[in-house]
């Protein structure tokens, strides 16, 4: 599960190698896995019973807000986590998703849930040209473009009052009937958000294990080298960007359906975009559950600040300081830090350097070649003769035969 | 559109473009020395404007005098910012993390401004605030002229500093090729800090100029950072002349578009130019090789 995703996947390709030595799992790992599963079950159960335990509708609504943040952060992490392209402007997609959903319902009389998915698809289509333009540049320019996108959409949403209602805002009709009361609404939306987060996490996990995900992570580590190795960087980046835009838009649409009111200043706000970054960064960009953990921490603190300090500007200072501290002292996030801590307890030390010595490896390969009796000097040249094919060897780690060294 | 209106618009565009050019030059400096996009630049701009306003309110003196305090102060803050915070980031992820760090600084400044001065809109009223000069039927406010003169003087001074002094040479060498500069005995770390200081000093001057003729409020910096970043991308990241030319062109473009389209829509010219540049020429129109990988 969470922190393991990056520390253990390094061993995954080796699992395909013959010999079966990597199949074994130490007792420590088994215990760890059991602990993780137990934790997952407990947390999952807690999440599911949360609406019943919530003391009053306000607590429940805070739960929905945090679930909504989690949905946004997980959606954001498709781009941020895999490719390392940090977008400060994902509020553009959540805002567009919210407005598209609302307008589909009010103007086109669509079923709310159809409108939600339709809004997501529309934003995904819009994200294609935006992605093509902004993914051409790296690093700083990409961030500039992402911020510019939010600012431009804010201008448009405020000025185009006939469509968006401008500064007056836009009412979104409730998806459930009038007879469903507020607490009941909160409860249903809480479960919908949780389901959305689970679906997004499942997709993230699937991508993480796929060839596609490997390519994306290669882009994150070194884009030029990835390209040189034949990763279709442009296509990969664009695909994951569009996936992320779609999920963010649906999350924004869900929020619009729940909250029932849209205001350009809050929808197309750089703050919302920076919340997504902060949450993912705090929890751990590269881990599956990182954004969720970050969303719980940041979302809870935000609500706490709102309750205790009201409308003062203090929450900006707190957000700024927290972001600065995370960037300076914990850029990898909480979960990787915890993972490193757990690794320290490990009885057998695991390093990134392979366990076999070169001599052992040579012996291993010679055995594979079947040349048990072959004297060293007369070993057959690579790729021909009896014994193992190169595919059977662990090519990634091997100096294949002695004479090539 | 009458000829005098057109002339007035053009002049106002150039005056606005001058301020943009100065601020974009600051952003370019940061980018040059550290490959850092300083999102907090416009927050410091607004901070300087608030300091000028505060200075005027407390002492009753001309806000221009606040420059005596703010320019050295901002220079020192910029130096400390670079030495103390930005240079501590990991080189591998410097570009992204520095954006987040400066973003965090911008939020903190905005929050503190709102905390101390409240969100109320502020404006400096001077004896010469309302007066204007007439040039061929175009009315140009005196404060705008002063702001432009200030920006232009600062820009010329910056240019002269970079071109004529030994420090300027070292700074340009650091921008061009840090390793080579280090081999030649330039203390690039210190120079980079000074580069940041200079960049922040432009924000101090720009902020004072801004305070003369604009209404200021804490969240105003978001309206500045977008256009400024568009300018440095269009001009080519890292190129000061490119930034200045792009600033003037886009400033005039914005002013001209204000007449048929209104103030809000005219702002979109920056973003359209930004997207068009990225599609046609991602390294910018005047920039050099620096920009290509960023």
Could you characterize the architecture of this molecule?
The complex is a heterodimer of chains A (405) and B (294). Chain A has 405 residues and is mainly alpha-helical. Chain A folds into 2 domains: 299 residues, ABC transporter involved in vitamin B12 uptake, BtuC, CATH 1.10.3470; 46 residues, no CATH class. Chain A is built from 17 helices and 2 strands. In chain A, helix 3 packs antiparallel against helix 11, helix 4 packs antiparallel against helix 5 and helix 8 packs across helix 9. Helix content of chain B is 72%, strand content 3%. Chain B is built from 12 helices and 2 strands, in the order H-H-H-H-E-E-H-H-H-H-H-H-H-H. In chain B, strands 1-2 form a two-stranded antiparallel ribbon. In chain B, helix 1 crosses helix 9, helix 1 runs antiparallel to helix 10 and helix 3 runs antiparallel to helix 8. The longest helix of chain B has 32 residues. Chain B starts with a helix and ends in a 14-residue tail after the last helix.
Descriptors:
heterodimer; A: 405 residues; mainly alpha; ABC transporter involved in vitamin B12 uptake, BtuC; 2 strands; disordered N terminus; disordered C terminus; B: 294 residues; two-stranded antiparallel sheet; 12 helices; globular
Strand order of the largest sheet of chain A: 1-2
Measured distance between first and last alpha carbons of chain A: 40 Å
Q: For the residues shown, what is the average pLDDT of chain B?
A: 84
**Count of discrete alpha- or pi-helical segments spanning 4 or more residues of chain B:** 12
For the largest beta-sheet of chain A, the strand count, sense and barrel status come to: 2 strands, antiparallel
Q: Calculate the mean pLDDT score of chain A and round it.
A: 80
Uncertain ranges of chain A: 1-22, 373-388, 394-405
Number of strands of chain A: 2
CATH topology of the largest domain in chain A: ABC transporter involved in vitamin B12 uptake, BtuC
The level 1 CATH classification of chain B is Mainly Alpha
Instruction: Categorize the overall geometry of chain B.
Output: globular
